[in-house]
Amino acid sequence: MKSREQEYKEIFVAEALEYYDALSRHISELEKTPEDEQILAEIFRLLHNLKANAKAIGYLVIADVSHKLETAFGMIRNKELSFSDEVVTVLFDGIDMLGELISNVDGAKEIEPSPALLRNLDIIINTQTDNNTELNKVQKYYTSKNLSLSDLIYIQIKKLDHLLNLVGELIIDRDRIVSISKELDNDDLKNVSAHLYRITEELQYSVMDARLVNVGSLFNKFPRIVRDIAVAEKKEINLEISGQDIQIDRNILQIITDSLLHLMRNAISHGIEKADVRKKNKKTPQGNIELSAQNDRDTVILRLKDDGKGIDQQEVRKAIVQKGFLNADAVSDLRDTEVLSFLFEPGFSLAKEVTEVSGRGVGLDVVKNAIDSIGGRIKVDSKKGVGTTFTLYLPTSIAVKGALLCQVEENFYAIPLMHTDSVLSLPTEKLHEVGNLLVTDIKGETITVVHMRELFNNDLDTYNGTKTALEGDVQNIIIVTYNNRKLGLIVDKLLRQQDIVIKSLSRPVNTIDIYAGVTLLGSGKVCLVLDVAAITRYFIARR
């Protein structure tokens, strides 16, 4: 059982980190508009609150640094201190130090602020006035106010994780009860099960809603990050951010944070050209990057778009051959979207030619793996000389996912909607066998098609493709997409869309790559969840 003191510390750290993020964002904005009174007032307020909270909990070093910064910004507000380059550098360093102190509150090694930084803060504070005078001004300014309690409380995320897991178990049992009530045809049981369905559905969405955060909590870190990278690269960058109010599961946002940061660094360091090069290419000397978020049903779409030099398709095709991924003939048949998908392959990033020519590929396999782990997908579009766009398709929740249910022989399977492109009934005559694989043409696109019955009834290590003639005049095909690639899956029956709770597989089934987990249907039937990423990788490689 945790002590009350430890809980208070965790609440302080959570709130202090939010203050730090806001301070980093505001000071970046202030550098562009140093006369903005509202930004100055907000920075002053955040520092004052952080100082007071740190004192109350006993973190005196954080309180001291906060106080020095608060004093400096108070002087800037009162026109007693100029927001010059030298002052800006010291203030940025001070806020960075605050972030480090807050992040290491319970670290094994105590972090001490740099003596040089403290000395610099004292120098800019004492240029026009002394500490006592400034402290009096702060106290007089806040003499900021009726006290009121916040409408927010802080809950450990693992408590919400546990609660959501329990809700997931409840949903499985609920669906079973609803199914039984229909079978028994008992009016009382039907009424109770209908009420149970409504209550559990509301509970499910309430718990999921409690876990949602605005993507702005991540996006708002980027103005400062972009500024620092641009300064280091000696480039001018204009960053446009939109969709900060779009909400997503906090765990998902946490997992993709490093990926988005990596993509942003690549865009600035390798995608955006130097100012003189841009001028020669009739572009603005200032590079432009757009970071946006939007909702599409149960999916959150994040886009990172730059107007840099783009990716040279021909150089990537050469690299695919040189690295031994495909031979020259196979590469010549690849669509542009398939060419770009190789940027995410492990080892491909080591190709010197690709990183020099396109500036992409370094570590992109790590980005893809992180997005795969949460059941999302990533897409890249690029045009040489125009720019590159990375699009991330992310689920709003990890625990409960939309899926398309299908049947193969007597078994049920679920395919995550995140990877479902389309569903169609295709005349058998339009399927052609090439080598050991089936292919078909859909809207001018040649797509490999896999007969799921044959796949499940054969050893995956030795199975190369279809072995028996297709039955019937029409085939039910689910087109799935992964890493800029499409694959058709032939199933016996298409059932319905349904929200499912995915559970991990037990041994020895968990060693089979094509399964991502398992769920239970309302009928009590076990339903295996297909790993679209694994199936797609397997058959695209064989094509």
TrEMBL record:
Boundaries of every CheW-like domain copy: 400-541
Gene Ontology molecular functions: protein histidine kinase activity
EC number(s) from the headed UniProt entry: 2.7.13.3
Domain HPt: 1-105
Annotated positions of the Phosphohistidine modification: 48
Keyword terms, alphabetized: ATP-binding, Chemotaxis, Kinase, Nucleotide-binding, Phosphoprotein, Transferase, Two-component regulatory system
Source species, domain of life: Bacteria
Pfam families named in the record: CheW, H-kinase_dim, HATPase_c, Hpt
Enzyme class, broadest EC rank: transferase
All residue ranges annotated as the Histidine kinase domain in the record: 195-398
Catalytically driven reaction(s): ATP + protein L-histidine = ADP + protein N-phospho-L-histidine
InterPro entries assigned: Bact_Chemotaxis_CheA, CheA-like_dim, CheA-like_homodim_sf, CheW-like_dom_sf, CheW-lke_dom, HATPase_C_sf, HATPase_dom, His_kinase_dom
Annotated transmembrane regions: none
Function text: Involved in the transmission of sensory signals from the chemoreceptors to the flagellar motors. CheA is autophosphorylated; it can transfer its phosphate group to either CheB or CheY.
Name this protein carries in UniProt: Chemotaxis protein CheA
